[in-house]
Amino acid sequence: MFVKKTLWRGLVLVLVLSLALVGVAGCSGGDNNTDKPKVIVSSKTFTEALLLGTMTCQYLEDLGYPVENKTGLGELAVIRPALESGEINCYWEYTGTVLINIMKEDPSFDEEQCFNDVKAWDEENDIIWLDYAPLNNTYAIMVTKKAADKYNLKKTSDMVKALNNGAKIHFVGAQEWVERPDGLQHVEAVYDFKYPMNLMSQAALNMGYEALKADKADAGLAFTTDPRMKAYGLVTLEDDKSAFPVYNAAPLFKKEIIDAYPKIPEQMKKLSELLDDETIMDLNEQVDIGKKSVDEVAKNFLKENDLIK
Q1: Is a pLDDT exceeding 50 seen at residue 285?
Q2: Torsions phi, psi of 227, nearest 5?
């Protein structure tokens, strides 16, 4: 009788352990995480980067991956060496940033070509670029709604045409951009015009928004995903001749992570493809202007798009 009871208890124990192992496997996002590396997600420190990093953490955690949150680590000089050394193994980067600052190449004005160049280059460093998002955090020309309505401005070509017809569109730009070969000079060459110097003034890069808000200028240099564009009611002119360099955001992973979790590229694509300029600008605005937390905004966005429960 004692032997039978012992045998029965042993069978019950085996059954319980088996069910427990099945439960653990069911939380793995489709990959068995046993003895596999932790996904250490990081980011730069500005709002947009924090949102991208935080969304990645929350999304991958919900999929069942072992995730460590190291968002807000630092800018390029800090975060790139951390990725290369393996201190972190995932963060979002901009194609043009690596092309210009790491590869030391000239700016690119072609999204796909730029992505392919940085992707091929980083494969040699065991860094994998996943599909880039539609969001392109580059420069653009912004105008006040008053100027847009007065001169019917929707594209940069419209502004050039208006200037050539004698329109007085006062432009405020940053000195560095005005003087750089890939800045104002490049825009003028692409659009075949010269901005009248009597209509130009210079200010710190981020002060252009304030000048337009205060109605002290009609146009200025902007970043395409800056939330002040929306908050101040400014109008972004379409760069219809692709005169500004490309800076598409994409998630970077160390090769060992993709080798360990081969489903991640397709899963991350579901997030990346949702992020265009208007969407990320709205998320930035909720944090910078609406004063919501990055965690809250990221979580709400993922839930609204059925990426997390």
Answers
A1: yes
A2: -65, -20
